[in-house]
Amino acid sequence: MSPNDKRKNFRDLLASDRCVIAGSVFDPLSARIAHEVGFEVGLLGGSVASFAVLGAPDLTLLTLTELAEQTRRICRATDLPVLVDADHGYGNALNVMRTVEEVANAGAAGLSIEDTLLPRAFGSTKESSLTSVEEGVGKMRAAMAAARDSGIAVFGRTGAVALTDLDDAVRRLQAYERAGVDALFVPYLKTRHQLDQISTNTRLPIILGGPGAELVDFAYLASRRVRVCLRGHQAFAASVQALYDTAQAVLAGTAPEKLRNVAPDSLMARLTQAAEHERLSDEFLKP
Prior knowledge:
Largest sheet: 9 strands, parallel
CATH superfamily of the largest domain: Phosphoenolpyruvate-binding domains
Order of helices and strands: HEEHEHHEHEHEHHEHEHEHHH
């Protein structure tokens, strides 16, 4: 499926009245698994991208080039529309334009640009702070200008609910809406009151990241224009634990046939598309 087809499928979802869970993806196989089990959208988070590519925490250490490369690896391997957490756009508004272009060229269906001031400054007294609304608006306008030719969807994201207050979050989201973004990305909402205030005072589709337990009612979320909900990156953590447990068991002398949670050959063949590669080998490598 072409990137444009995947973008159309995602935009159809944004225009619908449904809310779906996003599958957390971090490499080609995780994206294929997410698609096979039934997810309609995948999301490459900034934290898991840093974990998978660098083996480092989410401290804005990943470069745009590394993010785009990982996005390309994932998108070429799946028909799943993939959304990308592009952090702050890797700099100012002009850097945001470059970020949108590179992530779009990598095949993503959408990306978020946030108003967090990154990376953390020397001498700062708290982990995160926000840019001015004016700078955030400039970044969103730049992102939309860069997205025009590719059709990639742009999400205006704010961390204001956690870092300042709900009123500031609404003010920022309204400003990003006026700047022309396609959807609003709001992480770490905890209560229905917070979502109700945001939904009432904005009009665009909403994407939630890491919502509190009170919010996980998909009929309710859909009624508040939430179209995508990411509940976390448990898939990556589960894969790390499985690797750790298997490494310990192998080192302890456990026989291969007694190892737990090992994918059977049939699943590995299906996920790596072995049959299709065999067909191509027969067609092009035999006289």
